[in-house]
Specification:
Blueprint: H1 14-32, H2 36-50, H3 53-65, H4 69-80, H5 90-107, E1 111-117, E2 123-126, E3 129-130, E4 139-142, E5 145-153, E6 156-164, E7 169-174, H6 205-236, E8 239-240, E9 243-244, H7 249-287, E10 293-298, E11 303-308
Parallel strand pairs: 1-7
Antiparallel strand pairs: 1-4, 2-3, 2-5, 5-6, 8-9, 10-11
């Protein structure tokens, strides 16, 4: 039977070829009876065994008869592109030529759906087949008849049923209302400022430096003042009235030098003590929130400090 002839390169056994012949006979009988779904099943089995143009074209014809135009064109296209072999029987060439013609004719029966989602992030499927992102928004070839379109986004789902006729092109807008918005971004909180250690309430180091300096100057003034008195006493032993012997001159000079140092030391000590007192009052008033003001004055016979604290 030339219908199921297979070249020698094929691996079908005699038993398999006989099975395929039986399936084709039964398929033709069902087809003539109008039982296209059952006939398609037999033709599929025979084609799975033989995989030749004469079995493939019958699968494509039954698919077209059942309205499965997209799948029918795919099968027929594969049949038309089967490679020619030198020992192919004429029926194979005839089947491939018929497959080419049927492929072109069925193109006129294809319908088109263009799914147009309102917004981004949609997942779209047609009759259970999910579309790739590139296929969303462009015409998708479908079989004529009713189709179920399912759209999903943000955990929500919407379903649309639509019918298209042969050769019809139709846009199908889809939208999921009330989809939850993205959660708000967490508000960044600034770190709480660290508590500053309490400021010291005692006098500053400058105050104590002034006090120590004043004390040292007073001590120096007292010592040099005592030496000045002692040297003057020594000189008085060599003097009568306003007249002094030459031996008393050194003692008088030493007395005057020590007296000058003593006077300067006492003045320095007084200044340092005064400055320390002013600094203490300013620091104390600053910590209590008051504004301290002070200015020094020097008169002919005295000096002092005037201010508000």
């Amino acid at each position: 039977m030339a219908l199921l002839y297979a070249p020698g390169a094929q691996a079908q056994s005699a038993m398999e070829r006989e099975t395929a012949r039986q399936l084709m006979h039964e398929g033709y009988a069902l087809k003539n009876n109008g039982q296209h779904a059952a006939a398609l099943e037999d033709f599929r089995r025979a084609h799975a065994i033989m995989n030749v143009p004469t079995t493939g074209i019958e699968v494509g014809r039954e698919l077209a008869a059942l309205g499965k135009v997209v799948e029918a064109r795919d099968v027929l296209w594969r049949v038309a592109r089967m490679r020619d072999a030198p020992d192919d029987p004429p029926v194979y060439r005839t089947a491939k030529e018929e497959a080419r013609k049927l492929t072109e004719a069925l193109a006129q029966r294809l319908a088109s759906l263009r799914i147009v989602p309102k917004g981004a992030g949609y997942r779209i499927s047609i009759d259970g087949t999910e579309l790739s992102e590139a296929a969303i928004g462009v015409s998708t070839k479908v079989d004529p008849g009713e189709h179920v379109i399912v759209a999903q986004r943000d955990g929500r789902r919407a379903e649309v049923r639509v019918s298209v006729g042969e050769g019809e092109v139709r846009d199908v807008p889809v939208e999921i209302e009330g989809a939850p918005a993205a959660p708000p971004a967490p508000v960044a909180r600034s770190p709480e400022p660290k508590a500053k250690p309490p400021a010291s309430t005692g006098p500053s180091a400058w105050f104590w430096a002034g006090i120590v300096g004043a004390g040292a100057a007073v001590v120096l003034g007292g010592v040099t003042g005592g030496l000045a008195v002692a040297r003057k006493s020594d000189a008085s032993q060599h003097c009568q009235g306003d007249r002094c012997l030459p031996a008393a001159q050194d003692a008088l000079d030493s007395s005057r030098t020590f007296a000058g140092i003593s006077t300067g030391a006492f003045i320095t000590g007084g200044v340092l003590a005064l400055a320390s007192g002013v600094l203490f009052l300013i620091e104390t008033s600053g910590k209590s929130g008051k504004n301290a003001k002070a200015h020094a004055f020097v008169a002919k016979d005295h000096a002092g400090l005037v201010g508000t604290f």
